[in-house]
Protein: NADPH:quinone reductase-like Zn-dependent oxidoreductase
Amino acid sequence: MKAVVFSEAGPSDVLRLVERADPSAGPGEVVVRIARSGVNPTDWKLRAAVGPSGPHDEITPGHDGAGVVEAVGPGVGHVGVGDRVWVVLAQVGRAYGTAAELTVQPANHVVPLPDTASFDLGAALGVPFMTAHRALTSGSVSRLESGALTGQTVLVAGGAGAVGNAAIQLARWAGATVITTVSSAEKAALARAAGAHHVVNYREGDPQAEILAVAPAGVDLVAEVAPVPNLALDLAVTRVHGTVAVYAREGGDDLVLPMQSAIGKNLRFEFLVLYTLAEKLVQAAVADISAALAEGAVRVGESAGLPLHHYGLTELAQAHDAVERGIIGKVLVELD
Ligand SMILES: NC(=O)c1ccc[n+]([C@@H]2O[C@H](COP(=O)([O-])OP(=O)(O)OC[C@H]3O[C@@H](n4cnc5c(N)ncnc54)[C@H](OP(=O)(O)O)[C@@H]3O)[C@@H](O)[C@H]2O)c1
Structure:
């Protein structure tokens, strides 16, 4: 099979297209023929900073992907050869991710993809939607379903980002009133297309007043991508007993929390990262995202606020660079 690998940390030119032996499925494993690999910020960050370790002298990047089951190992029952699937956290704890024609994965990280969902959509689900799910379940509900957030208001910081887009779509499906922040008119249009009810440009006017005009008592939950620059806003617009779910550190790493505001409102700050997320929470996200998918509540593409950018496997370095530059939308690698 063709695969992209890197053997040392560094810029995108450490990525090499190579031929490797086809993987086989051991007990409890599934081999997937990848049609689309999804690229996320974590892929270039890991490549840039972390080289191979342990028994592996090379890494194939890529957590997200969609394709067709090529082989199943003993003990696998929920998918069979030829089934369309998407994969979850394919490179967590493993050296071989989705930037390859074939990947072998534990069965519980291989999820059926309905015929109604394209491979583009399947490859866009993993990291962004899992992150959004965890953020949205950091507050009053532990599981998402249609109606679970009815009556609640969610503020999605950065609604034109890939995770922001997923958070808008899932929160909207769950019945929340969704407010989001963006930095431009172009991004505002995308956030509206994703389903946000109210879009606030955080770089102009009075974002705090605009958000409180929608939610006078404050929002129930903030899905936060930039906690340092947004801390004052979050403290001002989150309601008593509300939650700020922090999944990234855009704009700064050192969060200094004014305790009086946080304690005074009985706020909950929750920090999340997929890499150490308990498996039961991974599986809860998989189940809820699958339900949203089955109900047609999850989409990709310009009309869903997430423009698609396709690259070939030979162009993975350019795909990583595009994500690193902050391209608007979803970067996908085509292998079919
Ligand atoms: N914890 C985890 O497990 C996890 C999982 C997935 C992603 N992440 C991290 O989450 C971040 C976003 O990922 P992504 O795939 O969504 O990236 P992305 O598509 O590039 O989106 C990033 C978004 O952040 C927004 N942003 C930056 N500063 C902001 C601010 N002060 N206020 C509001 N929005 C702001 C940007 O919007 P503007 O340009 O309009 O400011 C942009 O839309 C990355 O750092 C990624 O590594 C973490």
